[in-house]
Amino acid sequence: MSGGANKIVIDPVTRIEGHLKIEVELDHGKVVDAKTSGMLYRGLETICTGRDPRDAQHIMQRICGV
């Protein structure tokens, strides 16, 4: 990439359950694109569907120790 653009890839992200990859594209120090990809679906997200997002911290800490 030219003109001050570069790409940062963190793969794998550690200290989590499963596998996670993060890719960030920068142009002159500003994020112009960002992507994440995870390879593990445990279904815990489904429990939080339709709930207040603030509930997630209370629910997940009791289900998952990660």
Radius of gyration: 16 Å
Helix content: 10-25%
Kindly estimate the percentage of residues that lie in beta strands according to DSSP.
Answer: 25-35%
Briefly note the structural class of the backbone.
alpha+beta
Topology pattern, helix = H, strand = E: EEEHH
Description:
The protein has 66 residues and is of the alpha+beta class. It is 20% helix and 35% strand. It contains 2 helices and 3 strands; from the N terminus they run E-E-E-H-H. The protein has a 3-stranded antiparallel β-sheet with strand order 1-2-3, with no helix packed on it. The chain is elongated.
What are its keywords?
66 residues; three-stranded antiparallel β-sheet; elongated
Structure summarized in a few sentences:
By secondary structure, the chain is an alpha+beta fold. Helices cover about 20% and strands about 35% of the residues.
Helix and strand layout, with pairings?
Elements: E1 5-10, E2 20-27, E3 30-38, H1 44-48, H2 56-63
Antiparallel strand pairs: 1-2, 2-3
